[in-house]
Amino acid sequence: MTTVSQSRARRRDRRVYLRSHPLLFGLLAATRGRPVRRLGRTLLVHGPQAYREALTRLPLDRTAAGTTGAAARSALGDGGAGGVLFDQEGAGHRADRRGLAGSLGGAGVEDLRSLWRPLLVRRLAPLERGGEVDLVDLARELSGSVVCALLGSGADPRAVAEAAARAAAASVRSHLPGPRRPRAEAAAARAADGLRLLLGPAGEALPAMVAVAAVNTTVAALPRAVAWCADAGLWEQAADEALRPVLADELLRVTAASPLLPRVAAADGAVGGCPVRGGDRLLLVARHAAGAHRRDPDARRPAGPAVDRLVFGAGPHACPGARLARAQLADVLGALAPYRPVVTRARVDRGAALPGWRVLTVRAGDRAARASEDGLFGSRA
Ligand code: HEM
Questions:
Q1: Which of 150, 241, 278, 306 is deepest in the core (most CB within 10 A)?
Q2: Which atom of ligand 1 is nearest to the CA of 263?
């Protein structure tokens, strides 16, 4: 059941799409009634089953123009003989994924937790004194720190996060549909070089790709998820240790930080019963496949992993950072919950690669502020 507060949360969150890509958002909303809709040589894929089939059964051309793989490769290079994951296939892809599995697996994420937990305590301290915290700025520092630790880079975390955001935004601008844009392409190459230079010896194409993927999704996802939690009044669930990880999954599902996956079919096949020809363009709408548009987040009635994990893709290329992203959001929610924060200011980032906020400030809610003055949260840190 949609409550007034869930509607308020949904209304605010919708602004990140309407301010940055109103036409695309309108087109996708208008066509989502069917699992798959063909418009010329483009298929709009909305249904969960069709989305999964496209990512797991249909051969995809990972380097075709207009796909994530091509954009990643043209921005960062092909990493010498290998590639940058999104554009790879087969044994080379599997080997590079194995290289990441250690640092992004269960033990690796536990190690990273010990890095971000003190950072959260420090960055959220102003709430204690009635001050405000910008969750976008916090997410930048958090993701930059995680990336530097993952890649063994001694660079400044905020500078890395800013460079990764610039590289992704410039890459998106240089790949907009229509005629080639040589100046935008040159700007994208410069932005990618800036990131690689900053990362130092860790700045090969593949690690730089990991930095871009980690920073841009985290900076988009965390503030949107916190704003939804605050607007929908879900802090009780966030305060409950058992419900918190489920709530994190639910909030990642409804905010679908990477909402649209552009892909191209490499061969004939079918998705959701609809025939596909080699060379057809597929717009895979992760947001709709995960039911973000129709089912409110609720840790007591969750959609479940088969649905919520769709925001991380599916099959051999499914996001290797999913465990990290889920743990990170759960910890952010846990650290914020005692303050019952409310959103005080929100401004959309119209130039970012992914729909998100440029500024999203919160302060402790009235009840939490009063309790804090009375010392009721003294044991929080
Ligand atoms: C809310 C956070 C995140 C979301 C929603 C997200 C979503 C996605 C999606 C949809 C894909 C494409 C999957 C496919 O094609 O099937 C992907 C791939 C990828 N993600 Fe994430 N991601 C997130 C966080 C992260 C983080 C924190 C990292 C790194 C630490 C990361 C690293 C990657 C990499 C390297 C790939 C390419 C994998 C491949 O092609 O084999 N992501 N992600």
A1: 150
A2: 15
What confidence tens digit (pLDDT) does each residue in 240-285 have?
999 999 999 999 999 999 999 999 999 999 999 999 999 999 999 9
In this structure, the residue with its CA closest to atom 17 of ligand 1 is: 319
Predicted model pTM: 0.94
State pLDDT tens for residues 103-125: 999 999 999 999 999 999 999 99
Nearest to 256 by CA among 14, 50, 6: 14
Residue of 227, 72, 212 whose CA lies nearest to 143 = 212
Structure tokens at 103: 């640092």
Could you tell me if the CB of 361 is within 6 A of ligand 1? no
Which residue from 223, 217, 220 is spatially nearest to 135, judged by alpha carbons?
223
Could you tell me if the CB of 355 is within 6 A of ligand 1?
no
pLDDT of the residue at 177: 66
Nearest to 323 by CA among 191, 180, 214, 199: 214
Ligand 1 nearest atom to the CA of residue 55, by list position = 16
| 312 C-beta closer than 6 A to ligand 1 | yes
Cα 300 to averaged position of ligand 1 atoms, centre (Å): 27
Tell whether ligand 1 has an atom less than 6 A from the beta carbon of residue 116. Answer: no
Q: Is the C-beta atom of 145 inside 6 A of ligand 1?
A: no
Task: List pLDDT tens digits, range 210-239.
Answer: 999 999 999 999 999 999 999 999 999 999
Distance, CA of 52 to CA of 283 (rounded, Å): 13
Q: From ligand 1's centre to the CA of 258, what distance in Å?
A: 8
As a whole number of angstroms, the distance between CA 52 and CA 252 comes to 18
Q: Would the CB of 50 count as within 6 Å of ligand 1?
A: no
According to DSSP, the residues that pair with 346 across neighbouring strands are 360
- Sorted by where each starts, the structural domains of the chain and their CATH numbers stand as 4-373 (1.10.630.10)
Residue 156 CA neighbour count, 13 Å, CB half: 4
Rg (alpha carbons) of the chain, rounded to whole number: 20
The stretch 188-213 carries a mean pLDDT of 89
Q: Within its chain, how far is the Cα of 328 from the centroid?
A: 12
- Residue 147's alpha-carbon distances to 112, 122, 196, 278, in angstroms, are 10, 19, 13, 37
DSSP string computed for 16-47: HHHHH-HHHHHHHHHHTTSSEEEETTEEEE-S
